[in-house]
């Protein structure tokens, strides 16, 4: 499991992501509510309001949960 952390905001959880799925600056990552095996292009997220709660250009930190 990987967590999405906003410095001052909530921790959100996404589904499993395939080993070696490394993102580089400028890559586009799609978040979906469909249960899919994650990779460097798409990841599963249970939070259904995510698209409404973020804005274009907003920074999102993706890190491994400890």
Automatic annotation (TrEMBL):
It comes from Candidatus Ornithobacterium hominis. One of its GO terms (molecular function) is magnesium ion binding. Residues 6-64 form the Pyruvate kinase barrel domain. InterPro entries: Pyrv_Knase-like_insert_dom_sf (IPR011037), Pyrv_Knase_brl (IPR015793), Pyrv_Knase_insert_dom_sf (IPR015806). The lineage of its organism: Bacteria, Pseudomonadati, Bacteroidota, Flavobacteriia, Flavobacteriales. Keywords: Kinase, Pyruvate, Transferase. It holds the Pfam family PK. Its EC number is 2.7.1.40. Gene3D superfamilies: PK beta-barrel domain-like. The keyword Transferase applies. The keyword Transferase applies. This is Pyruvate kinase.
